Amino acid sequence: MDLPWHLYLMAFLYIVAGINHFRSPGMYLKIIPPYFLNPGLLNIISGAAEIILGFLLVLPFMSHFAAWGIIALLVAVFPANLFMYQNKKAGFGLPKWILLLRMPLQLLLILWAYQYT
Fold it and tell me: What stretches pass through the bilayer (predicted)?
């Protein structure tokens, strides 16, 4: 496979993040806004999606679709970033500026994924 190293890095990061949804679900459940139904199921779906999309990224015939999937996932989980910023408990006591910085970081992650579409 002749894929760029940063694609492997991205895949690794999403796989590890996805696994973490199952290792530490409480952390993710805390940041799911209360207006979403069944946060436990949403945590499982998003964690599984990260793992699957991470693996698909390194398959040359699937990386294009996986990158679009990651973009969709990042858009879908953006409300959690907003909720973390607005809710002190969901923000894990982090300073507001760090929580605010997460939002443009999400855009950078989208742009990173977009280069593989």
Answer: 6-23, 35-59, 65-85, 97-114
